[in-house]
Design goal:
By secondary structure, the chain is α/β, with parallel strands linked by helices. It has a single domain, classed as Aldolase class I (TIM Barrel), CATH 3.20.20.70. It has 11 helices and 12 strands. The strands form 2 sheets. Strands 1, 2, 3, 4, 5, 8, 9, 10, 11 and 12 form a 10-stranded mixed sheet that branches. Helix 4 crosses helix 5 and helix 8 runs parallel beside helix 10. It starts with 13 loop residues before the first helix and ends with a helix. The relative contact order is 0.14. The model has no long low-confidence stretch (mean pLDDT 97). It binds ligand PBG. Ligand PBG binds next to helix 6.
Length: 328
C-alpha cells in the first residue's frame, strides 16, 4: 500500500503516545467535594454514593490529609444540616454556632495551603429545600430578596477563611451582590467561583439524598437552566464575568461536554466542571457490576473534561483518581 499518511505511526508505542498527548490529568486539577455534618459520628456512609461519607469536624481532617498525601490540593465543602435547624429564612447559615463556618476555620488552620471552595445557596438550610427564598403565598422563588442572604452567607464564609465562595443558587445578579459585599468588608482577595452554567438536571438525585436537601414543593426549573438550550450560556457567562466572577463552572459534566467546549471557546476565565453525584453513581454502578475497570473508566471520563476545556474538575473520585494516577 502506498500511503503517505499513517495515523497509527503516532500510536505505536507508549513513549510516542505520551509524547504527542495533548491533554493530561493531574491531581492538582481536582477539587474534592466533601460533606460535613455536626455529629459525634465520625463517618456516615451515603447510601446513594457508595464509597462516599459525611464527616464530622474531626474526621474531615483525616480525609483531607489522605487526599493531600496523593496530591489533591483543593476541596469543596457542603453542609448537611439537621431538619430542626432549617427554616424558611435559612437563618442557620449565618449563625456563629454554624458547624460549617467553624469547620472552614479549623481546616484552614490545619491546612493553610489548601484551596477551599464553599457553597453559597439556601437549600441546605431551607425548610423549603430551595436555593432562594420562597414566597409563602405563591411558591415563587424570590430573586432579589434572596441576594441579601446569599451575600451575607458569602461574607460569613470569607470571615471564616474560605478561598473561593461558590454561589450555586442561580439567582440573577448574585455574583455582583456577593462581590460588593466582600469588597465592602475588605475581602478583596476572596474569589468567586460561579456555578455559572448550571442546568436543571436529573443527575443531582444522590447529592440531594446526601444532604436531605430536595425541594419540598416544585422543582428548580425557574432558576436552573433548561437543558434544551445552549445559547443562554453566553449570556450567563457574560453577566457573571462582568459582575466579577473569577472562575466559571459548567454543571453537570458528562452530558454537557458540548456546553463546556463552547464556553471554553467563548470565555477567557478559567473553567471548572462538576462531575455530579448522578455521574459518580453511574460510573460506580458500572464498575460494581464488573462491566469496566473502575480506574480506566473514571480516568477516561475525567480526561474528557480536560479535552473539552476545563482547567479544574470537581469530582467525588478526586482522592481515588489521584491514587490511580500516582500508581500508573
Ligand atoms: C445546590 C447544589 C446542588 C449540587 C451542588 N449544589 C444540587 C441542586 O441544585 O439541587 C449538586 C451536586 C451533585 O449532584 O453532585 N445548591
Amino acid at each position: 500500500m502506498n500511503m503517505t499518511e499513517r495515523p497509527r505511526r503516532l500510536r505505536q508505542s507508549r513513549a510516542v503516545r505520551d509524547l504527542v498527548a495533548e491533554h493530561s490529568l493531574d491531581a492538582k486539577n481536582f477539587v474534592y467535594p466533601l460533606f460535613l455534618q455536626d455529629s459525634s459520628v465520625k463517618l456516615a456512609p451515603i447510601k446513594s454514593l457508595p464509597g462516599i461519607n459525611r464527616f464530622n469536624n474531626e474526621s474531615i481532617l483525616g480525609e483531607l490529609e489522605e487526599a493531600i498525601s496523593v496530591g489533591v490540593k483543593s476541596f469543596a465543602l457542603f453542609p448537611k444540616v439537621d431538619e430542626n435547624l432549617k427554616d424558611a429564612k435559612s437563618s442557620f447559615a449565618l449563625k456563629s454556632e454554624n458547624f460549617y463556618l467553624n469547620s472552614i476555620a479549623k481546616i484552614k488552620k490545619h491546612f493553610p495551603d489548601v484551596c477551599l471552595f464553599s457553597d453559597v445557596a439556601c437549600d441546605p438550610y431551607s425548610s423549603d429545600g430551595h436555593d432562594g427564598f420562597v414566597d409563602p403565598n405563591t411558591g415563587a422563588i424570590l430573586n432579589d430578596e434572596s441576594l441579601v442572604i446569599l451575600s451575607e452567607m458569602a461574607l460569613k464564609q470569607a470571615q471564616a477563611g474560605i478561598d473561593f465562595v461558590a454561589p450555586s443558587d442561580m439567582m440573577d445578579g448574585r455574583v455582583k451582590s456577593i462581590r460588593d459585599m466582600l469588597d465592602k468588608h475588605q475581602y478583596t482577595s476572596v474569589g468567586i467561583m460561579s456555578y455559572c452554567v448550571k442546568y436543571a438536571s436529573h443527575f443531582y438525585g444522590p447529592f440531594r439524598e446526601a444532604l436531605d436537601s430536595a425541594p419540598k414543593a416544585g422543582d428548580k426549573k425557574t432558576y436552573q437552566m433548561d437543558f434544551r438550550n445552549s445559547k443562554d450560556i453566553y449570556r450567563e457567562a457574560r453577566l457573571d464575568q462582568e459582575e466579577g466572577a473569577d472562575i466559571l463552572m459548567v454543571k453537570p459534566g458528562l452530558p454537557y461536554l458540548d456546553i463546556l467546549y463552547r464556553l471554553s471557546e467563548f470565555s477567557d476565565l478559567p473553567l471548572s466542571v462538576y462531575q455530579v453525584s448522578g455521574e459518580y453513581a453511574m460510573l460506580k454502578a458500572l464498575a460494581l457490576q464488573g462491566l469496566a475497570k473502575e480506574s480506566d473508566l473514571v480516568l477516561e471520563s475525567l480526561m474528557s473534561f480536560r479535552r473539552a476545556g476545563a482547567q479544574m474538575i470537581f469530582t467525588y473520585y478526586a482522592k481515588e483518581a489521584a491514587k490511580w494516577i500516582k500508581n500508573s
